[in-house]
Amino acid sequence: MDVQTQLIQATIWILLAIVAVAGAGFMLFRGSLGAKNVKVSPVLESQLFELIAEGRKIEAIRKLRASTGMSLRDAKTYVDRMSSGAAPTGDLTPETQAEAERLIASGHKAAAVKLVREQTGRSLKEAQKTVDRLARG
């Protein structure tokens, strides 16, 4: 083989390696990308509650992953929040929304963000967006 052919082959192998590494990275993190935005249907949620009540948390995690495509970590966190009584879907209950609106009206926006985070499991950024939306009416 001449030098030019070897250079072309080396370049191809390097490109293949880059694509393989990028693909592997995507596969590792694909479950957590956007997992916070996954919507769980009320029917699935009631099935999960039933499994949790029967002490079958692992089966609940499997069912959640199969139905939504969540990563193992996100599904486990979701099921753990359900079993602890926290609002797993991230939806505001009417009581939480009313309390958050009261805090916002009284000038305690940070306390409203904290309340939303505690009640929904949202990230700080997501909770701030929710509180900002509530503040705008």
Compact description:
The chain is mainly α. Helices cover about 75% and strands about 0% of the residues. Helix 5 (about 95-105) packs antiparallel against helix 6 (about 110-120) and helix 6 (about 110-120) crosses helix 7 (about 125-135).
Number of domains: 2
Which CATH first-tier class of the largest domain would you pick?
Mainly Alpha
* Structural class assignment: mainly alpha
Helix share, percent? over 70%
What portion of residues belong to β-strands? under 5%
**Count of helical regions:** 7
Query: What's the helix-strand series?
Result: HHHHHHH
How would the global form be characterised? Answer: elongated
Low-confidence stretches are: 31-35
Annotated CATH topology of the largest domain: Arc Repressor Mutant, subunit A
Reported CATH architecture of the largest domain: Orthogonal Bundle
Average predicted local confidence, pLDDT = 81
User: Could you give a short account of the major beta sheet?
Assistant: none
What would you say this structure looks like, in words?
This protein has 137 residues and is mainly alpha-helical. It has 2 domains: 3-84, Arc Repressor Mutant, subunit A (Orthogonal Bundle), CATH 1.10.10; 94-136. The protein has 7 helices and no strands. α3 (57-68) packs across α4 and α5 runs antiparallel to α6. It starts with a helix and ends with a helix.
